[in-house]
């Protein structure tokens, strides 16, 4: 009788069923969770070298900034430098170009931005030279290039016109020319990136 009572108590036990921990979790579930965790760690250890190989190489990181000497750029002149494989337009604007850019009412702009919000020092405009419509490179850097109806840049592919602040004024481009991150190192030197 004692054996039958012991067997019944063991079967009913604190867990209520054989093969379970006292907290009610089956042993098999614990083994599945442990095996799953070990498999996840193994997959992570195996995949990490492939994931890490997608980071930029050191030579690419070295090109993440470009320093530009502004000293030789005279008033009214524009130069093009390359940053991260993209053309960057640097224009030393005339007083007339600055005044023209600042006199435009924001209501006349498809992508409203003030000239002051696009430049750090009034004579220097620095923008990425890629049309925001389909990625063409607009004309307007050379003195002989057409500069469009607003004296800035003109993209002949689809007829986008930009003003002297690099803002879209006419044509299919939805946004202004992008202003990259840049900082002045000195009065005649700037770092893009």
Q: What is the CATH homology-level superfamily of the largest domain? A: Rieske [2Fe-2S] iron-sulphur domain
As a whole number of angstroms, the C-alpha radius of gyration is 33 Å
Low-confidence stretches: 5-15
- What's the number of structural domains? 2
Mean pLDDT: 85
* Secondary structure: helix percent: 25-40%
Strand element count: 9
Strand order of the largest sheet: 1-9-8
- Sketch the major β-sheet: 3 strands, antiparallel
- Write down the secondary-structure element order: HHHEEEHEEEEEE
**CATH topological fold name of the largest domain:** Rieske Iron-sulfur Protein
The percentage of residues in β strands lies in 15-25%
| Shape field | elongated
CATH architecture of the largest domain: 3-layer Sandwich
Assign the structural class, choosing from mainly alpha, mainly beta, alpha/beta, alpha+beta, or little secondary structure: alpha+beta
Q: State the name of the first-level CATH class of the largest domain.
A: Mainly Beta
Termini distance?
A: 86 Å
- Give me the number of helical elements: 4
Q: What layout of secondary structure does this protein have?
A:
Blueprint lengths: L1 H11 L14 H26 L5 H5 L3 E4 L8 E6 L2 E7 L2 H8 L21 E5 L22 E5 L4 E4 L4 E3 L11 E5 L2 E4 L1
Kindly describe this structure:
The structure is a single chain. The chain has four helices and nine strands; from the N terminus they run H-H-H-E-E-E-H-E-E-E-E-E-E. The strands form three sheets. A three-stranded antiparallel β-sheet has the order 1-9-8, with no helix packed on it. A three-stranded antiparallel β-sheet has the order 2-3-4, with no helix packed on it. It has helices at 2-12, 27-52, 58-62, 95-102, and strands at residues 66-69, 78-83, 86-92, 124-128, 151-155, 160-163, 168-170, 182-186, 189-192. It has two domains: 25-55; 60-192, Rieske Iron-sulfur Protein (3-layer Sandwich). The chain is of the alpha+beta class.
